[in-house]
Amino acid sequence: MSEPEPIIEARGLTRHYRRPRRSLLRPGRAVPALRDVSFTIHSGQRFGIVGESGSGKSTLIRLLAALDRPTSGTVTFAGREIHGVPERQLGFLRRDLQVVFQDPTGSLDPRMRVRDIVCEPLVAHGHPDRAGRLAELLAAVGLPEDTARSYPHQLSGGQRQRVSIARALAPEPRVLVADEAVSALDVSVRAQILNLLADLVERYSLTLVFVSHDLSVVRHVCDTVAVLHAGELVELGPVDRVYRSPRHDYTRELIAAVPTVRSALTRFSREEPQQ
Ligand SMILES: Nc1ncnc2c1ncn2[C@@H]1O[C@H](COP(=O)(O)OP(=O)(O)O)[C@@H](O)[C@H]1O
Ligand SMILES: [Mg+2]
């Protein structure tokens, strides 16, 4: 078997955001949301990115998807630079990398029916058999055929996320990115969508980039994990190794933060007011 090829290479990725002028805290100062982050994702990998809220995960995803530009650093996709090139040269990326976001209500146009939402990328790429492909995609994500006529608000949260996934799969991407894609869902629905993602990755030989604030979820889905803390990559390795013997204090904290009944009780008793 040949070595899996690198598909995404991030080198020295840094992104500063400027604080709004009105801010009382050092007005206008540039705040680093991401600092000197480098890693390689190989074809077929299930690559997790974990870190608490505000650690820079979505900033990183926007840079990998060329939805935003780095302050410094580079990203290549299948060996091609994606920053500092005109949008019209990014057709390969717009097709080969698809992102599913946390909140499908925000990313699905409420005035469009499911069939148009899912087929939109097919129209853009001139697909010869849209109806056939639509039926195939709905079946792949476990939605009944008549969902095609529904509007997003007529569906449950889990169904809406299935629609987002069907839309993401429509252009036959090589890489599927899920940014907190299950975080807004109820526990039982979350498990169903996680299993669906795992099945689809297997079935279509996708590379998965899976972003979550919850390491236990990442462990369930990914083979490799990158841990972000305050915009820095503090740990990177096989997910089982990282889980069993974390090298960074922050990773240990994330593991300890897994909400078991016991830790919830401990936290509760710690929050009791001091007598
Ligand atoms: N468009 C933006 N303008 C200013 N600051 C931002 C912007 N997007 C994110 N940030 C800041 O960058 C940091 C990282 O945010 P984000 O990448 O969204 O983290 P995460 O996805 O891990 O929760 C946070 O401090 C956030 O407030
Ligand atoms: Mg985020």
TrEMBL record:
- BP GO terms, sorted: transmembrane transport
The question of whether Magnesium is a record keyword is answered with: no
All copies of domain ABC transporter, residue ranges: 8-255
Q: Which domain of life is it from?
A: Bacteria
- Claim: Calcium is one of the keywords in the record: no
SMART domains per the record?
A: AAA
Q: Name one Pfam family in it.
A: ABC_tran
Keyword annotations from UniProtKB, A to Z: ATP-binding, Nucleotide-binding, Transport
Q: Which GO terms describe its molecular function?
A: ATP binding; ATP hydrolysis activity
The record's similarity note reads:
Belongs to the ABC transporter superfamily.
Q: What is this protein called?
A: ABC transporter ATP-binding protein
Q: Which organism is it from?
A: Solihabitans fulvus
